[in-house]
């Protein structure tokens, strides 16, 4: 009887001990579960968020990712458009240069045709008949003739003259000069000596071309023509008025 009571007492102690252990295990397990839940539901800034807030945050993150992808796509499209604009600008610049060259050429043609007023530096060449020589049988030997005038005009054009006039009358691409005794006829208009040939161009180049040894000046002087040359800074030539 006494042994039975002792066994019963030991069993109660064992049960009580097991209950204490079970309680401790339950307490630790509950603490771990609670701590894990808090870690899961806590944001990085330490605030506890609900499921709805978590879902909203996830949606916002997804929208941000989509927006960033859209931005990259639009940025790529922007680069492509900018490249197209640069190509268009280059084409326009080339076209503008072409139009500028055409306009410049057209202006030169109008100037050579005498359609526009021109002004600038240049030279004036005066050709006068030689002094009378009673010992000379042929008076034409010291008069200025059209071939003398042609020599001067051709040399001026070859040397870069952009416009030429005789006694103020502009010459064109189809002008003609005819000698008629002591006068010359330029495009139907008569001009007496002396003949002033003016040309717009680089004065230094034109003067050097006419004064070259054995050139136009020496040839005319040998023909007893009085030759004078002057560089000027402000020549003006009016446009040719077409005859009706």
UniProtKB/TrEMBL annotation:
Pfam families: DUF881. It comes from the Bacteria. Residues 64-91 form a coiled coil. Signal peptide: none annotated. Keywords: Coiled coil. The keyword Acetylation does not apply. Belongs to the UPF0749 family. This is DUF881 domain-containing protein.
């Amino acid at each position: 009887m006494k042994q039975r009571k002792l066994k019963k007492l030991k069993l109660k102690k064992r049960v009580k001990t097991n209950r204490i252990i079970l309680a401790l295990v339950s307490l630790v397990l509950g603490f771990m579960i609670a701590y894990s839940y808090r870690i899961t539901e806590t944001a990085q800034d330490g605030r506890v968020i609900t499921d709805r807030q978590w879902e909203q945050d996830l949606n916002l993150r997804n929208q941000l990712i989509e927006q960033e992808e859209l931005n990259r796509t639009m940025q790529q499209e922007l680069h492509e458009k900018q490249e197209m604009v640069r190509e268009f600008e280059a084409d326009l610049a080339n076209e503008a240069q072409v139009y500028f060259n055409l306009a410049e050429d057209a202006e030169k043609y109008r100037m050579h045709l005498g359609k526009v007023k021109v002004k600038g530096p240049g030279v004036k060449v005066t050709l006068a008949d030689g002094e009378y020589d009673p010992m000379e049988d042929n008076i034409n030997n010291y008069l200025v003739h059209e071939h003398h005038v042609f020599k001067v005009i051709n040399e001026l054009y070859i040397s870069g003259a952009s416009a030429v006039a005789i006694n103020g009358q502009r010459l064109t691409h189809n002008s003609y000069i005819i000698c008629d005794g002591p006068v010359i006829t330029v495009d139907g208009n008569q001009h007496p000596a002396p003949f002033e040939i003016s040309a717009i161009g680089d004065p230094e180049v034109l003067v050097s071309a006419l004064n070259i040894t054995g050139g136009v000046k020496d040839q005319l002087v040998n023909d007893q023509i009085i030759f004078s040359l002057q560089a000027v800074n402000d020549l003006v030539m009016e446009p040719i008025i077409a005859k009706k």
